[in-house]
Amino acid sequence: MAQPSTKPSDQEITHQPVRSGRAMRRFRTVSLATVLTIYVLILVGGIVRASGAGMGCPDWPTCFGRWIPPTAESQLPADYQSIYADLGYRDTTFNVRKTWTEYVNRLLGVFTGLWILATLLCALPLRRQDRGLLWVSFTGFILVAFQGWLGSRVVASNLAPGMITLHMVVAQIIVCLLLYAYLRSQRDVLIAQSSNALGRLPRLLLFSAIVVTLIQLLSGTQVRESIDMIAKLNNNENRHLWVDNLPLIFSLHRILAYPAVLLNLLVVVLIFQTRSLAPSAYRVAVVVAGLTIGAMVMGLTLDRLHVPAFAQPLHLWFASMILGGLFYLVFVDRYARQANRQPSGVDASLAATGS
Fold first, then answer.
1. Cα–Cα separations (whole angstroms), residue 70 to 56, 83, 92, 99, 221
2. What is the C-alpha separation between 113 and 174, in angstroms, rounded?
3. DSSP class of residue 86?
4. Is the dihedral of CA 93, 98, 102, 108 positive or negative?
5. Is 0.85 topped by the overall pTM?
6. What is the mean pLDDT of the chain?
């Protein structure tokens, strides 16, 4: 009696790669959407700080004890300033604009968390094809949960400076992790599109640009914290005196701006001098150049025009995206080097037959 065959049918063999391809394309789409959502959240978070709306909701996760914030002071208890005195409302009156700005920021944070959860779920079908995608997505998901908890601590600490810096650093780590997941998911595409890689000097300058940009981000956050303290002491008045009263870290930040701009623009020039990189490298390089010029303009605006509120979030946002763009270029170069190490054409056939 014939035994039933355990060998998969031709139909199963035909459809398996299709399912795998669809799963990978789905992961790419969702992970890229997640990265873009995080960048929007970074911008909105900067707007919250620049507008002084960080304590628009004195409690967390509710806002004045409500899931839907009030739209008028009359909706709050008469003694709300006493109730939230320890959270910064002893001498602060309700401001509907600041309250809803902070609340929208929180909603966007939840929305971002859902996107990262979707990225993790999309990575599950790919665990056999590329287990690394699953682990990176899972790490990003855990860090987002930590970021949510950290956000509650920031509110509870009444915007303590060190907590704000840590909050920003974790956001940068999350976006770089998700960006890496997106790049890893199209590794084969980038390898196939690349026939050349950066030389040693351009690669060294690229890593140097990342280090300097990261230092600028950290020192810039310290400057922002100092500005927040000076603004609070001056009741958001006398802006023309703020820059003169900034600590030494501002001088470091201003001095490092020059090598940061030069390094970023030099990296872009060297990218275009390198032939046959993946096409996306040249598009990202153009974006990095534009963002670098934009960050420089916003920095000069902050310095010369007495720290206008609109320039603060844009300055941080541009710097964050520059870091992401440089990170992208590192992995394009990495996969280009892998492409150069892989045999092709006749060499590949000989390697396959052992000749």
1. 11, 16, 16, 8, 31
2. 11
3. G
4. positive
5. no
6. 84
CATH topology of domain 193-344: Four Helix Bundle (Hemerythrin (Met), subunit A) (1.20.120)
Residues paired with 136 in a beta bridge: none
Who contacts 80 (Cβ-Cβ below 8 Å, separation ≥6)? Answer: 64, 89, 94
User: Residue 152 pLDDT > 70, yes or no?
Assistant: yes
271 Cβ contact partners less than 8 Å away, ≥ 6 residues apart: 198, 202, 277, 281, 282, 285, 329
Beta bridge partners of 63: 66
Q: CA-to-CA distance for 312 and 141, rounded, in angstroms?
A: 28
Report the range of poorest mean pLDDT among 98-107, 304-313, 316-325, 334-343: 334-343
Question: For residues 165 and 221, is the Cβ–Cβ distance under 8 A?
Answer: yes
108: which 2 tokens?
Answer: 């966007």
Q: Is 342 exposed, middle or buried (0-12, 13-18, 19+ CB in 10 A)?
A: exposed
What is the reported pLDDT for 343? 53
Q: Which residues pair with 66 in a beta bridge?
A: 63
Burial class (CB in 10 A: 0-12, 13-18, 19+), 254: middle
* Every domain of the chain and the residues it spans: 18-185, 193-344
Q: Which two tokens stand for residue 241?
A: 């005196």
